[in-house]
Amino acid sequence: MPLFNVYPLYDVTPVSGKGVYVYDDKGAEYLDLYGGHAVISIGHAHPKYVDAVSRQVSTLGFYSNAIKNPLQKELASELERLSGCKDYELFLCNSGAEANENALKLASFKTGKSRVVAFKNGFHGRTSAAVAATDNPNIIAPINAQQQVTILDLNDVEGVKAELEKGDVCAVIVEFIQGVGGLDMATADFFERVDALCKANNTMFIADEVQSGYGRSGKFFAFQHYNVTPDVISIAKGMGNGFPIGGILIHPDIEAKFGLLGTTFGGNHLACAAGLSVLHVIEEQNLIDNVNVMSEYFIKIAKTIPQIKEIKGRGLMLGLEFDFEVGDLRKKLIYENHIFTGGASNKKLLRILPPLTVRKEHINMFFEALIGVLAEFENKAVEA
After folding, report:
1. Diameter of the chain by CA atoms?
2. What angle do CA 122, 128, 131 make, to 5 degrees?
3. Taking the complete model, does pTM exceed 0.85, yes or no?
4. Which residue of 120, 129, 222, 244 has the lowest C-beta tally within 10 Å?
5. Does domain 47-284 have CATH number 3.40.640.10?
6. Cα separation of 197 and 244, whole Å?
């Protein structure tokens, strides 16, 4: 049976990984500066992660949410302590799309309203309401388009104000650093005024931290760079270092009721073991401090390269923008230099999302390769 052909694939077959490296079926080593869409937070095959998951699967891998699971409470407690999101409550699911889906559903339950405000170049997932709130018509099927969503420009405070005052908006959902859209960020004034507008209009403010969370921005959550208090915070990707896990942090003003939300696999024993090991490693290895040091080092070097027209993002969620499309550049980096990088809907942007354990020597390797490829491109242009 063939696989349903929905992914354009690079001709690379990773079979193992260690730290910031992956190894293919021919034994070649690749520097991973993309982390599988920012999923690999503490490095491939981190020994504490491997040990935690292995020990858990050897005892109990799964049972449903019909029984008590102390690992869920432990995960919630550690997440509250390390994130600083005091008194929020945790609902666990399996992915970022599910997290945003549940966040939007909860907002609709809480407010009794159904319309959503989202933003241009935003990406929130591929399921029903989450994909409707995503600014990409190519992935929105007619069944998704039935959702009531208004897409506005980032920084359009007056637009948000006008929409919320109509009285039918249940949620405003925003990435504090856009991921797939290309690492754009709104201003502090915008985020803070939207937060206030939501509170004044019985509208839930949802912080999509699926990609930017868990230290990647230089704080535990990207919204913590601003003076805002989200009603719901969605999390996933780096939360499990590769194990499928997601969740939402829910403000205590939102009351839980039996049956309000539910999941079969969410918060299972293996997922919680993986999630706890990630939090422990982030704390023990001071990885958020490392994010800030490595980010400063990366940006300092990037500023010296004239072909880079703009540096976007923050922390280790970075984008390098050029005046040409980067598809061929990415191919050169992966096939000739054995370095994984990412793309975005902005075709001129190279995305950098390494494990939070990345070091200066890895950044040096990347820039040495990048400078070489850029020089090669310029030589070809001169010859032409």
Report:
1. 69
2. 15
3. yes
4. 120
5. yes
6. 34
Contact 114, 168 (CB under 8 A): yes
HSE-up (13 A, CA, CB side) for residue 377? 19
Comparing C-alpha atoms, which of 153, 45, 135 is closest to residue 346? 135
Q: Where are the alpha helices (DSSP H) in the chain?
A: 35-38, 47-57, 70-83, 96-111, 128-132, 157-164, 188-200, 269-284, 287-302, 327-335, 360-383
Helix (H, G, I), strand (E, B) or coil at 303: coil
Give the CATH architecture of domain 14-46+286-383. Alpha-Beta Complex (3.90)
3-state helix, strand, coil in the chain (%, to 5): 40, 15, 45
pLDDT tens digits along 86-106: 999 999 999 999 999 999 999
Query: For residue range 315-365, what is the model confidence (pLDDT) as tens digits?
Result: 999 999 999 999 999 999 999 999 999 999 999 999 999 999 999 999 999
- What's the Rg (C-alpha) of the chain? 21
- Give the integer Cα–Cα distance in Å for 115 and 377: 48
Q: How many residues does the chain have?
A: 384
Nearest C-alpha neighbor of 343 from the set 41, 28, 133, 33: 33
